[in-house]
Amino acid sequence: MVFFKARPDWQRSSAQVTPEQIFWRRRRFIASLIGAGVGLAATSAGGCQRSKAMDGDLERTLGEPLAGVRRNSAFADAGREPTPQQYASSYNNYYEFGGSKNIWESAQALPTNPWALEVGGLVKNPATFDLDDLTQRFELEERIYRFRCVEAWAMVVPWIGFPMRALMAVVEPTAAAKYVHFTSYYDPAVTPGPSLGFARDLPWPYTEGLTVDEMANELAFFAVGVYGRTLPKQHGAPVRMVVPWKYGFKGAKSIVKIEFVAEQPATYWNTLAPNEYKFEANVEPDVPHPRWSQKKERLIGESTAMFSWEEQPTVIYNGYGEYVADLYA
Ligand code: MTE
Fold first, then answer.
1. Long-range contacts of range 88-91, CB-CB < 8 Å, 24 or more positions apart?
2. Which of 106, 235, 276, 283 is the least buried, fewest Cβ under 10 Å from its Cβ?
3. Of 29, 235, 259, which is closest to residue 121 (Cα–Cα)?
């Protein structure tokens, strides 16, 4: 986010928008999508990524079906159509696998089985959850949430998972716990991050944080699936955070550790650029990012082009004020 673009990545000329007829020819469509993404990422590796990805097959990355999951009726309508999966699952931010949006193929190197999610710190019942715990111990539900990146693009995503507070009920944070620190999977041999020299000192592993009250909010969600299937690796398999009233970078992927703590923890983007990426990072149209006015947003995949050119006004808390405004009163 911070290093790789000279301009917001939705700012492209009409010549770069995928023509309508390509939409229906899926393989060629994906190839053109990837070409556009590579063109925007100012990485010297761009050309290699492009030819490699054009031979790939997005569909084989899309996870296993998750049957019998009920849709939570309170979150069945996000006020916008869900983003088609071919867009959402091929246009990702996952810097452990590179600095472009086109990481869906390289992310397949992520080893997700077995998986151990360690939960500890200021809790009464520290616990480690494996893959079966994540998909069977907690009752799974589907929630269609709006998703808003700080880069001013937006999607609508049908996540499958469970509320964060269901996990809190198991581990029972103590009264001393005020914040929660989430850590993503990191192994430099597997997740090297962008291979650019100036990015060598990124503060891996990727970490994020919430207050305990935010984590206990009805909306805060752990996703283990999306679009009816287990999470693809590019979305942060096997378990990632989803906090839809905050900018997308708050949703750490592939979580291995959750620690309840007394003080506000250091987090990845906030450490890198505290003037650009606040710890709180709520969607707020009147609080401009130094490089992206947050007043408007552009939807990915709403039209036949990758980006809808119709700008939408950004809504405070991404439209979820009725659930979260009290947290910030
Ligand atoms: N989590 C990890 N571990 N690494 C990342 O680079 N990127 C964040 C967030 N979680 C990121 C991450 C950002 S900037 C965004 S916008 C969202 O993931 C993108 O989620 P998606 O690719 O599933 O749409």
1. 88/155, 88/157, 88/226, 88/227, 88/235, 88/300, 88/301, 89/58, 89/61, 89/62, 89/226, 89/227, 89/232, 89/234, 89/235, 90/30, 90/33, 90/34, 90/58, 90/234, 91/33, 91/37, 91/300, 91/306
2. 276
3. 259
CA quadruple 228, 160, 325, 211: dihedral sign: negative
Determine how many CB atoms are found less than 10 A away from the CB of residue 227: 21
H helices present in 91-187, as ranges: 131-132, 164-171
Please identify, in words, the CATH class of the domain defined by 3-328: alpha beta
Instruction: State which ligand 1 atom lies nearest to the alpha carbon of 147.
Output: 24
Q: Which residue's CA is the closest to the ligand 1 atom numbered 24?
A: 92
Residue nearest to atom 9 of ligand 1 (CA): 249
95 lines ligand 1 (CB under 6 A): yes
pLDDT digits (tens, 9 = 90+) for 243-287: 999 999 999 999 999 999 999 999 999 999 999 999 999 999 999
Strand partners, 210: 180
The answer to whether the pTM exceeds 0.90 is no
**In which residue ranges of the chain is pLDDT below 70?**
1-56, 195-200, 302-309
- What angle (nearest 5°) sits at the alpha carbon of residue 191, between those of residues 186 and 194? 120
User: CB under 8 Å to 55, separation ≥6 — which residues?
Assistant: none
List the domain boundaries for the chain.
3-328
Strands 255-261 and 117-121: parallel
Backbone angles phi, psi at 240, to 5 degrees: -140, 165
Cα 264 to Cα 180: distance, rounded to the nearest angstrom: 8
User: 226 near 158, Cβ under 8 Å?
Assistant: yes
Which among 231, 249, 276 is the best mutation to test ligand 1's pocket, defined by most ligand atoms within 8 Å of the CB? 249
Evaluate: CB of 83 within 6 angstroms of ligand 1.
no
